[in-house]
Protein 1
Amino acid sequence: MHRFASASSLPPPPPAVAVAVAAAAVAARFGSATPWGSRALSLTTATCAWRRPHMRSSSASASSSSAAAAAVEEARQGRKQLGATPQIFEYLLDNVREHPVLRELREETATMRGSQMQVSPAQAQLLAMLTQILGAQRCIEVGVYTGYSSLAVALALPESGILVACEKDERCLEVAKKYYRRAGVAHKVHVKHALAADSLNSLIDCGEANSYDFAFIDADKRMYEEYYELLLKLVRVGGLIVIDNVLWYGRVADPLVNDLKTISIRNFNKKLMEDNRVNISMVPIGDGMTIFAAVWLLTIAHGSYGEQVNELQMGCFMLASH
Ligand SMILES: C[S@@+](CC[C@H](N)C(=O)[O-])C[C@H]1O[C@@H](n2cnc3c(N)ncnc32)[C@H](O)[C@@H]1O
């Protein structure tokens, strides 16, 4: 098991956790204490992005590459929790509340090609909890696959709630729709069978900017930045956006891995660190999720936000200040 270096030899801890409830939910599931007192799952060398690159030897790089390969293989076998031993994964699974229809869907998905793409039960439970604590009525998912994460969100929505589910693959959607019906939530899910960027742009064109409470991005990695910008327009101030695979099987932390998807996620993560339109929390659950809270009002109030403030958001600001 990887051990942390002493606190004094470490760079500063990751940015403050902005979404306290979400962080608490994750922390409750994780084991080893970190030097700065928060609790996070003990990570492999490949996933310790906060270690300084110059501290790493070439043998560390080789072992981090094989750790990434092992993480992909584990995900393929249905054990999608970066850095967790099979024993910890089983324990996590035993401590997730999973709706019986979600379980059936997970079992069917496990027999299908690409099953490693599905979020883990613990991730789905976190998405459902965020939906509930936000009191969300209007949600968007980008990348449905067979519907596991979207079904978890749809189950958490009230009867009047809607989830816009964007997916380009019709065969995956057939599986998803079957399970939406089986769980009695099909009326809440508005399926958009198209390229996700086109679907999001058409929502904006239809005047739906600033009207969504919650969004989950889990599709093509090289489009993350575009989805993020489109969803920042669609999600209201104070809403949440969650994005999956930000640790990308640990590859983002390995300077020797430079394929296009890894570079794209690494650049996206860097951009987020510098983006003061949002509060962020990168959570090492599943393959890593970053939770963003849109905080435009806060940044406007501090005078540090200078562009892309549309009239609707300014309207919200005016209302809030009266
Ligand atoms: C990682 S999977 C989603 C997994 C899903 N969230 C779950 O937990 O089961 C990514 C999905 O995004 C879809 N996808 C990829 N590129 C897309 C695009 N440009 N537009 C719409 N869907 C896309 C793929 O077909 C695939 O089903």
Protein 2
Amino acid sequence: MTQDELKKAVGWAALKYVQPGTVVGVGTGSTAAHFIDALATVKHQIEGAVSSSEASTLKLKALGIPVFDLNEIDDLAIYVDGADEINPQMQMIKGGGAALTREKIVAAVADKFICIADASKEVDVLGRFPLPVEVIPMARAYVARELVKLGGLPEYRQHVVTDNGNIILDVHNLRILDPSALEKTINALPGVVTVGLFATRGADIALIGTPDGVKTIEK
Ligand SMILES: O=C[C@H](O)[C@H](O)[C@H](O)COP(=O)(O)O
């Protein structure tokens, strides 16, 4: 099976967590795109979606799924999204597609975070994938210097502006042994909007695509 077939398998497997009559939290990226395709097949049974990016909003609307402003929603049962890495504690690195901040906001509102990922995303220790950090543009150099002090090698993601008008620093050379502590430390730097570590609030359920089928891990 190709990596995309594994992504498709988990995207469609997540459909079983969608309850009729609800608003569904929808993530961003190539795996989440498969989930949106699956969601479109039950669009008349759900109320709609809240989205974590302009790209997902466009796809949802193109498939006829109503998209709500998160501020209109009090209750979100599930948030379904991919990840760049996931560890055995269900903590993740996200933001390879630059959508980390809105993803973290929608995930915070949801009761359950359902992570959909192909098996290549499973790691024992987070950090092989460069850690994305969304930064307000005027703070770029300052935050980069602070990230070097933390042992990282930050790289400015050229030609990328987030949906919120900010820039991304991708931090290489990290071996993240305490993800919750690093999440708090980086989030506390002035100028940082969000770090792409989803540690304090990790996933509740992970659907992992393997050549032998979809593996379900629950907290
Ligand atoms: O900003 C992007 C998101 O965090 C994605 O969920 C993550 O990068 C995984 O993307 P993909 O499903 O395309 O591998």
